[in-house]
Amino acid sequence: xxxxxxxxxxxxxxxxxxxxxxxxxxxxxxxxxxxxxxxxxxxxxxxxxxxxxxxxxxxxxxxxxxxxxxxxxxxxxxxxxxxxxxxxxxxxxxxxxxxxxxxxxxxxxxxxxxxxxxxxxxxxxxxxxxxxxxxxxxxxxxxxxxxxxxx
Length: 151
Prior knowledge:
Blueprint lengths: L9 E8 L1 H12 L7 E5 L1 E5 L6 E9 H11 L3 H16 L7 H20 L18 E3 L10
Parallel strand pairs: 1-4
Antiparallel strand pairs: 2-4, 3-5
Helix pairs in contact: 2-3, 3-4
């Protein structure tokens, strides 16, 4: 997925957890007292990163319990649902959102492109396919990880 976004020099962490952990994260960081499927904790914002420096994107946290329920409800396997959630979370880390219907359509299309790239293991399948990484990504790390996560 990172290669498909031309972000091979970037790094992110992926945390797989259960609903108990996810509920606590959601309550602590979003004031929502229930588990959710994915949270993204971005580490970048502000000034440009010096060239050649590894960029730490942040953390994508996925509740496998919620992902399993969603996969079952939609007739997918858990691996497909987790891949979708990882792509969704990654897009949040680089500045995408889905607060409006137009943003939702755009993010869904980009999520599907990333899933295709991950499944085919061929980033060349979507390189140059129109996923423009927001300018904010080329920034320095935030000194604090207090920014609320996105879902």
